[in-house]
Design a protein that fits this description.
362 residues; mainly beta; twelve-stranded antiparallel beta barrel; two-stranded antiparallel sheet; 5 helices; 14% helix
Length: 362
């Protein structure tokens, strides 16, 4: 067991992989503009006597922009909300990874492998890269996850996972955010006939460097936790194709500490956001050399909810499509690669990216 845990830690350190993803805020991100000083009035001259200026009438012109505190807080909320939605949208699919080698066997395969000596479960790695835009604001984000099944029964699997995430946003309001974070936790998969259920619970911290207008604040701390669950079914077609409908729900909370940038205080911010997903996957079997595999076609509808929905994150109903391929060799390895487009039907939000998954069996 200690060897396996060392493998997890080593792999997570090697995954210094930077990748992109985002989601932004309809109300928090639009209309955020750089802070500008009030406009001084000019003294008009008397047209009949250029040397005798006329005193200006009326008050000074108003400032071009509202107060600096509102602008700084809006930019901060835009980033924290975008990162929350990106992390929630990009969680690795536990059922797809675990059942990649034989969809008809599911966890019973793990039960058989568990009878061998030593650690007999898979060590798996998932990388996700995503770039999104909402109302003109962009966030690049990526997640690297490493995990492993620790305990098996005839119809269930229990494991641990470690997740590192990276996020960068430049603007709005001439402010940039550069953040890294980590979460660790547990997951479980339960199979009963054609139905499969999985759940995960993760918690951790992050650190963000904020820069703007010549000032910089390093190491603004955040604490966060995530919970998610999914249920799916499978239908085997006569031509060997497989249909896998699914429904999932997830919840993410992220509390970022207060800080001061350019002498402007930014208050502590907590994002509470959930997403529900309903869709399905169509698997088309293929053979490449000595390996079997599937072409993967997926589509789903996503809706956001929670007290932050519609303020810092997208809450309108939107669509997502996935296209990819997976290859596997039984009891040895499996690899998968996916590209996806998110935000279909939502005029304010769009996202695209790629996923890579690798599973090694011991």
């Amino acid at each position: 067991m200690s060897t396996f845990l060392k493998s997890i830690l080593t792999t997570s350190l090697i995954l210094g992989v930077w990748t992109p993803s985002a989601t932004l805020a309809q109300d928090a991100c639009e209309n955020i503009t750089p802070i500008m000083a009030p406009t001084e009035p000019t003294d008009p001259q008397d047209p009949d006597d250029p040397d005798d200026p006329v005193e200006p009438e009326g008050p000074m012109d108003p400032p071009i922009v509202t107060n600096a505190g509102e602008s700084a807080e809006g930019a901060n909320n835009c980033f924290v909300g975008g990162r929350a939605a990106a992390i929630l949208s990009n969680q690795p699919d536990l059922q797809t990874r675990r059942s990649a080698q034989n969809y008809g066997i599911y966890a019973s395969q793990a039960g058989g492998i568990a009878e061998t000596e030593g650690f007999s479960g898979p060590l798996w790695v998932s990388l996700s890269a995503r770039k999104s835009e909402l109302d003109g604001a962009e966030l690049n984000q990526g997640i690297a996850t490493v995990g492993g099944d620790l305990f098996f029964t005839d119809n269930s699997i229990f494991g641990v996972m470690l997740q590192s995430d990276f996020a960068y946003q430049d603007g709005p309001s001439d402010t940039s955010f550069d953040a890294t974070g980590v979460m660790a936790g547990v997951y479980a998969i339960y199979i009963s006939g054609d139905l499969a259920f999985d759940a995960r619970l993760l918690g951790g911290r992050s650190s963000t460097d904020v820069s703007g207008s010549g000032d910089r604040v390093d190491g603004v701390d955040s604490t966060r936790w995530l919970a998610a669950a999914q249920v799916s079914s499978q239908t085997q077609l006569d031509n060997g194709h497989l249909l896998v409908p699914h429904a999932s729900v997830g919840w993410f909370e992220d509390k970022m500490d207060a800080y001061t940038l350019n002498a402007v205080p930014v208050e502590e911010k907590t994002i509470r956001y959930g997403q529900a997903d309903l869709g399905g996957t169509w698997l088309i079997p293929i053979t490449m050399g000595s390996s079997d595999g599937n072409i993967i076609l997926g589509a789903s509808g996503i809706i956001g909810f929670g007290e932050s929905a519609g303020e810092e994150v997208p809450d309108d109903l939107r669509g997502r499509v996935d296209v990819g391929i997976e290859l596997f060799r039984n009891d040895a390895w499996s690899v998968s690669g996916m590209i996806f487009g998110d935000g279909l039907g939502d005029d304010n939000f769009e996202a695209y990216g790629a996923d890579l998954g690798v599973t090694l069996w011991f």
